[in-house]
Structures are given as structure tokens and as C-alpha cells.
Amino acid sequence: MSTGFTNVLTDTDSTTGNSITPVCDVSISDFTFVGMAEQSDWTSPMVATFTGTITAEKSCDSVTAKVQLYSNETSNFVGTSDPTLTKVDDYTYTFTTTIDGPNEYGNFSGYLTAWDSDNAADKANAASTTQLFAPPCYLQVVSFSKLS
Amino acid sequence: MSQSTTQHNWKIPSTSGTYDFSGYASFSNFPNDTYPYDTASVNWIAGCQIQVSAVNIDGWVAADNNTDTSASAKLSASGTKIGDCGTAWTVQGTLTAQDGTVSSITIDPTTFFSAAGWSGNQAIGRKSQHYTFSVTATATNAQTAE
Questions:
Q1: Under CATH, which number does the domain A26-132 receive?
Q2: How high is the pLDDT of residue B84?
Q3: Which CATH number belongs to the domain containing residue B66 in this structure?
């Protein structure tokens, strides 16, 4: 006869902890080339307008973007903008930005890069559609005088 | 005719089994004559103690899309079973998230009761939240100690 011993046929124990935030992931949901227009006339620059939507995880606390205007005629970036991002909710940022470019006939497109400054390795990139800029034709009579 | 009773106590390992007790009486003035007792047979079943010794969250893996890494928890647990705890055991772990998500974790009893214990990774949600890791060990066919 066993005495003084209590059977313990089951036992439970537990612990708690907080998981860590994900490494920030930034993605581009939308990047639209709205259009181009002269600022005033042929003496003023061409102004290209872009809009975009960037999605970033909640852990991203310093989301940054850069938009560049690309000229197909010269194969160069001809303008840059650091758009101000508007935080729509915990995960979504939007922007509208303009870039001054050459007021010359040609095809242009935009390139968007978005990242978190604390997680620069994760850079998201997107290219816009290409659009033709055909500025109005201006004729200016520089001088007109009667010769005799 | 007089009658006397003698009690003897032994300490032996508590191992389940059938134990036979037998003895005999002898008298000092007749040392060559012995008088055997009846043999008594006792079926002994040792008690069982199941204990969860350690339950740990050893660390976390952060989700990272750059490396296709999913979030997970690094878990470990160990326990002991003392006595006659039968031949079958279950060890069940649950990881409960703050948002109510419950992950059921099947833990191999042999590994759990080994010296090294059990360890493993459990997939969790991407976002940071509070988790509770709980482990229950049960001897499913242990007999009741007599």
C-alpha cells in the first residue's frame, strides 16, 4: 500500500512574451504621370505632374520618396523632386508633386523610388508611362523695321 | 499458548510489480527447526508524477519581405516523469496571440522528457503582439497508485 504519495498525472506551465515588429517593407501601389504643361509660355519651364500611393508597414516610421523626370531624347534625368508624403492611414502614403523640365518637344517619363530611411535596403521602384510633350508653337517677331 | 506479532519495515525502490513476502519462525532453543509462514503476495503500483519543468520563448524571428522570411517564435519546453507513468503520454503546446489566434503545437513526448528537452519554431503573425506559450503534459494510461 502506497501512502503519502499523490499521483500527478498531468501538469501545465506557461510563459509570455511580445513578438517583434517586422522588418519594414515598402511598396509602391500607384505611380501616375498626370501630364505636362508649360508654366507660362515658351520662356518658362515645362512642369510635369506626378501622383503616387506608397504602402508601408506600420513598422516603417520614416518613409521617404524621390521622383525623377527622365528625358527619352537625352537619355538623362532632367529633374528631381522629393515629394511631401501625406499619411492616409497606418500603412498608406500619397503624394502629388511637380518637376520642372526643359520646355522642349520630346518624350518624358517618371521614376519613383520609395524607402524607409531606417531600412534603406528595402527600396521600391516604379516607372511611369511615357508621354509626349509637344509645346505650343510660338512665333515671335523680334524686330520689324522699315529699311528705307 | 501465547501469541506475539512482529512488524518489519523495508525500504525498496518504488517499482511497479508483484512482490511476494514469505518468512519463517524459529526458536532459539530449537535452532534447527523452522516454521514457515504463509506467503503473502502484494501487487504494487508505483505512483506517477508528471511535471512540466520549463516553458520558454527563446526568441523571435521578424518578418522580412526582402529575404522572404516569415515571422516565427522560437520555443522550448521540457518535463519529467517520475514513477510508473504508464506507457503513453501526450504533450500539447498552445501559442495564443493577443488577437485571439491560437496555434496548436504537437510536442513529441520522448523529446520533451529527454534531458535536452524539446525545441522548435512556430509560425506567427507578421505584426508585433503579446503571446502566451502554454504546455500541458499528461500521462494517458498511468494506473492509480494503490
A1: 2.60.40.10
A2: 85
A3: 2.60.40
